[in-house]
Known about the structure:
Blueprint: E1 2-6, E2 15-19, E3 29-39, H1 41-47, H2 52-55, E4 66-74, E5 86-90, E6 102-106, E7 110-112, H3 119-123, H4 126-139, E8 147-151, H5 156-167, E9 171-176, H6 181-186, E10 191-194, E11 207-212, H7 219-224, E12 226-234, E13 242-243, E14 256-258, H8 265-276, E15 284-289, H9 293-301, E16 308-312
Parallel strand pairs: 8-9, 8-11, 9-10, 11-12, 12-14, 13-14, 15-16
Antiparallel strand pairs: 1-2, 3-4, 3-6, 3-16, 4-5, 5-7
Amino acid sequence: MKAAVLDEFGSVDVMQVRDIPMPAIGAGQVLVEVYATNINPIDWKMREGTMAMRYGDDFPMILGWDCSGVVAEVGEGVTDFKVGDEVFARSDVSTGRCYAEFAELNTRTVVPKPSKLSHEEAASIPLVGLTAINGLRSCANLQPDQRVLVIGASGGVGTLAVQIAKNMGAHVTGVCSEKNMDLVASLGADAVIDYNKKDALQTGEPYDIVYDTVGVRTYEEARQALKTDGTYLTLVPVPNIDFFIPGQTEWEPGKGYFVAWTPTAADLQILADWINEGQLRPVIDSVFSLDEIKKAHLKSQTEHAVGKIVVKVRD
Ligand SMILES: NC(=O)c1ccc[n+]([C@@H]2O[C@H](COP(=O)([O-])OP(=O)(O)OC[C@H]3O[C@@H](n4cnc5c(N)ncnc54)[C@H](OP(=O)(O)O)[C@@H]3O)[C@@H](O)[C@H]2O)c1
């Protein structure tokens, strides 16, 4: 099968699309014929070697955490899926391994693909959607009618955080640049602030939650815009906050957390249900082929994508 493979860490040029042996599946796994995957910033951070402490340095390495495709084989003990099922997933297998024509996936992070979406659209959802919902629900204990500020509202995580916060009953203010204001409003934001014109943390508006999805503000700055018991969330580690450890950390009011989470099919199913009910939609910046994976990484590295950069693996 064809895959985008790394043999060392480095620039985009270390990523080569070539033929490699088909992956084998074990008990509790499915082999998925990948129709589409997408780029998350963690992919190019891993490619550059800055995440090696966490994800290791076993080469050849195949990146890619998200996919949408069709079940091609089921492993021992798998009863929820059969060959031919359309699924989407956030891989929890080693380094992701979805930049490939086939991916082995643990069924605990696989659910039926929302029927409304194409494979390219479905592949854009899992990692960012799960980051958005886990941040708001688990790390910030979001309640209906609370006021949420989403910084980076036009990005991969931000476009879903705005919609998910609205689905959970919040009043949402999105922060983005002028060119993306209409998009963020169309996602349901009650107010939109252009970060080049106004400091969203200096409006006098007290927030229950500040979700800095792009890690551009300090905790101290955000604290000034939060109610005393309000929660600050960041996706990029900054000083003076706690690391939210799933299953161990209990949310406490008035704190700041680095959002960390464990992917589950149950959470992915919540996203799929919202999509099927018309309450959540993907935002696609661009679509590249697997052969164009280097271009797709370079686009993500601009850090100005609008929504998700998708990689179409097959027609
Ligand atoms: N902890 C976790 O589990 C986790 C999960 C997912 C992502 N992350 C991390 O979170 C970060 C964001 O991920 P992502 O996928 O959302 O990235 P992304 O899609 O690349 O974000 C791009 C967006 O950021 C916006 N942006 C850039 N500078 C901004 C600023 N100063 N103020 C407001 N918006 C700004 C851009 O809007 P404009 O073009 O309008 O500026 C663009 O729409 C990455 O560092 C990623 O590695 C962490």
